[in-house]
Amino acid sequence: MNRCVLLLACCLLLPHLAEAKLDHKGPGFPTDCTLCHDPADPDWSHTAFVHDTTRFPLEGGHRALDCEQCHTGSQFAGLGADCAGCHWDRSHDDVWKLQIGRDCGRCHQPTGWQETRWNHDDEPAHYPLAGKHATAACLTCHPNYQTRDASAACITCHQRDYGRTDHAKVGFSTTCDVCHDVAATDWRATGFDHHAFDHDRTGFSLHGRHASLDCQTACHQNGQVPTATDCASCHRAAWQTSRHDGAHLNLPTTCASCHTESGWQPATWRHDDPPANFRLDGAHAAVAACATCHTGSVTQGASRACESCHAQDEPAGHFGTPCASCHTAADPNWQAADLGPNFDHTPTGFPLTGLHQTVACGSCHTGGQYAGTPTDCFTCHWTRSQDDLWRLQIGSPCGSCHSTAGWDMNVSWHHDQPPASFPLQGVHATQPCLSCHPNHQAQGTSTPCDGCHHADYTGAANPNHQSSGFSTDCVQCHTAADPNWQAADLGPNFDHTPTGFPLTGLHQTVACGSCHTGGQYAGTPTDCFTCHWTRSQDDLWRLQIGSPCGSCHSTAGWDMNVSWHHDQPPASFPLQGVHATQPCLSCHPNHQAQGTTADCWGCHASAYNTARDPNHVQLSFNHDCSGCHQARDPDWSRGVIDHSFYVLYGPHQTLTCLECHASGYQNMPRSSTCQRSCHDEWKDHKEPDPCYRCHNTRNWGDADD
Predict the structure, then answer these.
(1) Which regions of 426-486 does DSSP assign to beta strands (E)?
(2) Which pLDDT score, from 0 to 100, does residue 247 have?
(3) Is residue 10 pLDDT above 50, yes or no?
(4) CA 189 – CA 192 distance, rounded (Å)
(5) Which candidate in 52, 207, 558, 642 could, as Cys together with 57 as Cys, close a disulfide (CB 3.0–4.6 Å)?
(6) Phi, psi of 344 (to 5 degrees)
(7) pTM
(8) Is the pLDDT of residue 138 over 80?
(9) How far apart are CA 501 and CA 497, in angstroms?
């Protein structure tokens, strides 16, 4: 049905195609008229062509245009889509004549040709519009719509403004933005005051007091521009009235070396720089007025010698005019010489070191007396001040013990040297002097131990020194190096040798009371037997092998390096082979030594009875094992019978005993009867001669024919 309607519509509309005012055929419009025309429309001229289907959608004012305004001469195909094609190539709408480019869309909008958005910051202008520039009409700067070769220099447009003022008269630069701000909305907005004018552009920045001065009355008098930038050009009058000139202080005209822009005062004159070259330290730096030293404002020829100013400060009894010998310029006052080692005392023959450097001069130079002052320690530290608490008992040369570092510091008294001659060791070295020398009494002090330690001797209870008859010569048990009085019990300090029983080995570590029971020292037995058997029953063998312990044991240890010799009495049985490796209890169970048999059968009967190769019992071997076995053999299987009665040669050596001794070992035949016992092969022989006539024991096959 729809297709029929469509065909009917086309048939009805085709006659109108020939009558169309617009050439449809030339541009190649399709014959499907319904793409643009409505069959129900009574008027052929009404179209509904959708331009968005082309590559140029219609926007804004383009929608209201008649098609032929763009498609002149009925040209539809091949038209360009760029703005300049219509607005310049055809109509020359651009009054700027393409000076700012063919891309109309950069400035104009489809809504209307006059609705522009030109950005003066971008190409090709590159000139941001600010202030008054932003509101000026384009033709104000670009007459006749001329843009090319337009200068960005202010004077190009503002020559009249520059000429109407006295800028040229005062020598102002034609670079207007030195004074004027392009962002200002009024040419006269600056008023040329310091706050609006950027003086930094002139090369002379305004700081401090300069920033608040009036231009014409202070620096640019009579409109003088440019003006010299050196200080003296403006401040020469002040330089002269301040007596800085050559006739007075002879100071340079470089004001900035002393003054700052914050104000003429205060000045920072550096006295250690030229032309003075005299550093101000200490009290000199505190002098407020220069005239204190430079009377009459005179600087040239001023003396640097202290006495030129300080002659009146020198008191009586001083050492002449070179003040610096004792005083320094850095002293806070004239009296400061007494407060530090400023005076070089070395040339006097008595250099000041240590605490002598901090002592006031008057402490040694009493009554202002400097010449002839004694330099020996004794005069100051004893004759005058009685500093020695020992009252010269240990000598008068103070320097032998004390140093200038301090009277009580680093005292180097050597107790092992005269007059003491008593080395301090152990606890003695840690005791304060007054422990042995009460009231600082040195002379007459006893050096024997009992002199100080008698109470320790009588009070000793373990052991009781008095009841044991110990000597009062303490060093027999104690040493001066012991860390305490009880140290004698902690090691072999006592020399036991004079007692006739020197302590060796473990005896050195045994406590005295272990041997000296009940505190008994005199008459203590020295034989081993008394301690190790009578008292302690240490001998597991219970004296069966003798009571002289020392014959086997040593003081190195009861079980260490035991030197029992089994080949000597009471054993008299040398240990060899396996015997030497067996523990004692293998042969002496329960430590039973006496009555032990020395013959082999006593210990080895079970080995005899169980022997199988050969069977000792079956073969009736002798019970004297030594016939075959040796005590030095490393094991029982090494038994070898003495076969010298019948020497074995050749194959006889490889035979087992039973191959020959199948019937026993007794009454064995000799070589002359071999044919009757072992070699019955003789039966095959013609002659029953003895075997040995033809054969030998080395090889049966080597028979002599």
Answers:
(1) none
(2) 57
(3) no
(4) 8
(5) 52
(6) -80, 100
(7) 0.31
(8) yes
(9) 6
Name every residue whose Cβ is closer than 8 Å to that of residue 214 and which is 6 or more positions away in sequence: none
Q: Which residue intervals of 486-550 are DSSP H helices?
A: 512-515, 528-529
Token duo for residue 353:
């070191």
Domain spans of the chain, in order of start: 1-81, 644-705
> Which structure tokens are listed for 675?
């044919």
Residue 317 CA to residue 502 CA, distance in Å, equals: 80
Hey, what are 160's tokens? 């009249």
Is the pLDDT confidence value at 7 over 50? no
Query: Considering only CA atoms, which of 663, 661, 600 is closest in space to residue 636?
Result: 600
Q: What is the DSSP letter of 400?
A: G
* HSE value, Cβ hemisphere, 13 Å, CA-based, for 388: 22
Look at residues 551, 499, 504, 513 and name the one whose alpha carbon lies nearest to residue 529: 551
Question: How far apart are the two ends of the chain, measured CA to CA in Å?
Answer: 150
Closest CA to 315 of 326, 305, 304: 326
Q: What is the mean pLDDT of residues 137-145?
A: 84
| Residue 304 DSSP symbol | -
Q: List the beta bridge partners of residue 464.
A: 461
Which ranges constitute the DSSP H helices of 415-511? 433-436, 449-459
Give the other-Cβ count within 10 Å of 629's Cβ: 20
Q: How many residues are recorded in the chain? A: 705
pLDDT (mean) for 523-542: 83
Residue 554, phi then psi, degrees to nearest 5: -130, 170
pLDDT of 290-312, one tens digit each? 777 877 656 666 777 887 787 77
> pLDDT by residue (tens digit) across 353-410?
888 888 888 888 887 777 778 888 888 888 877 878 888 888 778 888 888 888 877 7
Contacts of 452 (CB under 8 A, 6+ apart): 436, 446
DSSP three-state, residue 115: strand
Lowest mean pLDDT among 144-153, 295-304, 474-483, 614-623: 295-304
612 CB-side CA count, 13 A: 0
Higher-pLDDT residue of 251 and 578 is 578
What does the pLDDT read at residue 3? 47
Instruction: Judge whether residue 494 has pLDDT over 50.
Output: yes
